[in-house]
Amino acid sequence: MKTTLVAAAISVLGSHAYADGHNFASAPHVGQMRDWSGAYAALGISYSMGSYTTTAGSAYNAPDAEGVGLSAILGYAMQDGGFVYGAELMGNMDRTDGSGADCGLGAGFTCRSSIRNYLAARVRVAYAFNDTLLFATLGYATDKQDHTIRNGGVKVGVNAQRHYGPTVGLGVAHALNDELSIRGDVEYYDFGDRTYNLTVPGATTIDTNTVSARISLMRRF
């Protein structure tokens, strides 16, 4: 008898709660958007490829360069709902090289192209899908490059120049927990042209660009 009365009471209370809009049994769970805001730092490994175009009239054909490097990123992000935006600094420490024979100069010649690190300051805009962040970067970068030419093993031309130019990138980050995330970037650098004073073949203007892929472990503070 008591069991019947208790069941009836629960049924009545439940009916009133549902009528008042308090359907506790079926109330949805509202999850919170992951917080991507604040300062962050990342360490990563990159793979970079530099390609070169010499001015018309120069016989020199600079070999493309490629190599692996270590990178560090420091940044700060702000968040408004799913939108995340901020700025960051990226430094890539590597020794990206390329070498070849002839190089448009004839038999016996060998040449080498090198990239000695690059640095970028950029803004980042993103949209968060809770644990996953899709983003784009836009900024300005600089690097140090050099070209060396040898004839029969004897150095006949060497010059280093600093290049400057815009950079754009796309990437994705995925949160592992509240502090750590894994991040991947693909970046393009247009470092423009500089004139290299090489004994052979003489003053040569070289236009250069670099494509880089990077994977990093990022920590939010």
Automatic annotation (TrEMBL):
Keywords: Membrane, Signal. InterPro entries: Beta-barrel_OMP (IPR027385), OMP-like (IPR051692), OMP/PagP_B-barrel (IPR011250). Residues 1-19 form the signal peptide. SUPFAM superfamilies: OMPA-like. Residues 6-215 form the Outer membrane protein beta-barrel domain. It is found in: Membrane. It comes from the Bacteria. The keyword Membrane applies. Belongs to the Omp25/RopB family. This is Outer membrane beta-barrel protein. It comes from Roseinatronobacter domitianus.
